[in-house]
Amino acid sequence: MAITLTEEILSAARGGEPQALREIYESLAPSILAYLTGKGCEDPEALCQEVFLAVFSKLEKLTGGISGLRTFAFSVAHARMVDDVRQRKRQPVLAQFDPQADSRFSSSAEETFLGTGPGVTALLEGLPRRQQEVLLLRVVGDLSIEETANIMGSSTGAVKQLQARALRALKGRMERGEVPDHERIA
Which of 1, 93, 113, 161 is 20 to 30 A from 179, alpha carbon to alpha carbon? Predict the structure, then answer.
């Protein structure tokens, strides 16, 4: 059953009446959702919810009656759609690595650094993610503490602490024999 919005419903919604807010949502949400879906938004349902959060927060200042409400709701929906498109353009498309398609003939940075053996991944296994990141940036990436801190959005002190903890953990693993001799880092 389609709800016909009236000025009375809008007035009650401005007063925070839950049923009136529900009626506005049920009246406008299907067309807003269809608009966002038709524009190819990644998560149209979530964007639709964002639209109504914005609309409901501005109801008291809204002018133009029911027509103004519809116009404002679709203006917010359009803005959320544009934001969604921009966000997706900034995010790289992730692709699965296919070793069969990798035609490199030179050794990888990991092989150059560690020689043969399981490699960096096996050595770093079990370390917290941030410690792994520091070691990869500092040792494999050959970056300075300052460069590493900048990339990670941390202070240089935090990077130094993470690096020291990671190296202590690796040393402990080596001393306990958890890392075979051919995997040890000089």
Answer: 161
Of 24, 58, 90, the position where a domain reaches its end is: 90
Separation CA 63–CA 75 (nearest Å): 14
Residue type for position 88: R
Q: How far is CA 146 from CA 142, 166, 169, in A?
A: 12, 18, 23
Q: What is the CATH number of the domain that holds 132?
A: 1.10.10.10
Whether residues 115 and 73 fall in one domain: no
Confidence of residue 93 (pLDDT cuts 50, 70, 90): low
**Phi and psi of 82, rounded to 5°?**
-65, -45
Copy the structure tokens of residue 29. 């949400």
How does pLDDT run across 46-69, given as a tens digit for each residue? 999 999 999 999 999 989 999 899
Quickly list H helices, the chain: 7-14, 18-38, 44-57, 65-90, 109-114, 120-124, 129-135, 145-152, 156-175
